[in-house]
Amino acid sequence: MVKHVILWTLKEMTPEEKQQVKEGIKEGLEGLQGQIPGLVDIRVITEGLESANTDVMLDSTFEDAASLKGYSVHPKHVAVAENKVRPYTAQRACFDYEV
Fold this sequence. Notes:
By secondary structure, this protein is α+β, with helices and mostly antiparallel strands.
């Protein structure tokens, strides 16, 4: 199994806009569950503790590294990334590891 964790910092926007963007990211990415081969689990956390210094976290699990690679180019994932994530993010950090 492979874990794929992403942390995003959103661009400057009003609190209302930020909440709407977070909801869109969560809905879009979690909606991929059952849609992509090898994707075991996917969760998006949008409400961190006060100590958090990023806005959104993706916590996903894949069967193996090949499944993660397939996810990265899968048209359904690319559509979510291009329409709901990338236009609104200022910074991205990724950490992939085997479990």
